[in-house]
């Protein structure tokens, strides 16, 4: 279990049904250090929140940050709004919970990310606990939803194969048989919590672009590393920056699948030759 998931699951251990809507609450400014909800669209929150947390510095802020890695995966475009409506509810004249439909939408997209780490959707976020009345709760945003669904997106998958110093023919076959081929510099760092942190450094270069979008591919690869943290730990060696050639395909559901990963060292003349020959190669 990764540290952030262990803490996050503890953070939602108090059932929402235990929250008393009639209890006395107070409004406080969302502090700068609560970065998960700082740019959510409002500046004041209610305490206690819907998890029963009333200590801003001792409970709310540190436990809210436990969700940051999950939000960074981009599992749903309204995951931040959903989570912050629970841990930092907006300060209005009435309590505004997330609608059941919003919970379902976020759960259906983000639960597979938790499952990829070996954990179920938290029981305290059971969607049946949220109101169904669309006019008294936070609803899903329909704007741009069709466009977002059409974009290639990362997902949990089996680890791609890794081949060190492959022959040129193997690399060219991978270029031919898969939808895209890219080069990227990946870095594995040690986070302060002890968990590995993965970064895509610099630009992602296309060998074969396929259905990928130039402005989105670096971010897409970063999210893939966060979702498939177990794979990333096995594939990306700790230490200095390493250049890789990655090939993959886009599945019918729009999810990308990385299939081959070739570490590209200076001595690997076969990879350099394959990338040069590719422009004139016939599959």
Describe the structure.
The structure is a single chain. With about 280 residues, the protein is an alpha/beta fold. It has two domains: about 5-150, Frizzled cysteine-rich domain (Orthogonal Bundle), CATH 1.10.2000; about 150-280, OB fold (Dihydrolipoamide Acetyltransferase, E2P) (Beta Barrel), CATH 2.40.50. Helices cover about 35% and strands about 20% of the residues. The protein is built from eleven helices and nine strands. Helix 8 packs across helix 11 and helix 9 (about 215-225) packs across helix 10. The longest helix has 17 residues, at about 100-115.
CATH superfamily of the largest domain: Frizzled cysteine-rich domain
Name the average pLDDT: 86
Number of strands: 9
Give me the strand/helix succession. HEHEHHHEHEHEHEEHHEEH
CATH class of the largest domain: Mainly Alpha
Assign the CATH architecture of the largest domain: Orthogonal Bundle
Residue stretches low in confidence (pLDDT < 50, at least 5 long) are 1-18, 143-147
> What is the CATH topology classification name of the largest domain?
Frizzled cysteine-rich domain
- The share of residues in extended strands comes to 15-25%
CA(first)-CA(last) distance:
43 Å
Using the CA coordinates, give the radius of gyration. 22 Å
Structural class by SSE content: alpha/beta
Shape: elongated
Percent helix among the residues?
25-40%
């Amino acid at each position: 279990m990764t540290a952030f998931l262990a803490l996050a699951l503890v953070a939602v251990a108090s059932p929402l049904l235990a929250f008393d809507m009639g209890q006395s609450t107070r409004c406080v400014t969302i502090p700068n250090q609560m970065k998960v909800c700082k740019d959510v669209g409002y500046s004041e929150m209610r305490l206690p929140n819907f998890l029963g947390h009333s200590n801003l510095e001792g409970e709310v802020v540190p436990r809210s940050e436990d969700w940051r890695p999950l939000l960074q995966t981009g599992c749903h475009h309204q995951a931040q709004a959903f989570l912050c409506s629970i841990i930092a509810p907006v300060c209005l004249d009435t309590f505004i919970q997330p609608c059941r439909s919003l919970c379902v939408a976020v759960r259906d997209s983000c639960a597979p990310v938790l499952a990829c780490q070996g954990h179920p959707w938290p029981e305290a976020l059971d969607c049946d606990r949220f109101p169904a009345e669309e006019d008294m709760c936070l609803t899903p945003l329909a704007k741009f939803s069709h466009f977002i669904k059409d974009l290639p997106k990362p997902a949990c998958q089996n680890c791609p194969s890794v081949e060190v110093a492959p022959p040129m023919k193997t690399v060219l076959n991978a270029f031919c048989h898969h939808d895209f081929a890219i080069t990227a510099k990946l870095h594995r760092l040690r986070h302060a919590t002890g968990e590995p942190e993965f970064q895509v450094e610099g630009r992602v270069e296309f060998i074969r672009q396929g259905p990928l979008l130039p402005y989105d591919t670096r971010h897409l690869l970063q999210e893939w590393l966060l979702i498939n943290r177990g794979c990333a730990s096995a594939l990306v060696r700790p230490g200095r920056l390493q250049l890789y050639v990655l090939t993959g395909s886009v599945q019918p559901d729009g999810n990308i699948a990385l299939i081959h990963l070739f570490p590209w060292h200076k001595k690997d003349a076969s990879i350099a030759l394959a990338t040069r020959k590719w422009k004139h190669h016939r599959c």
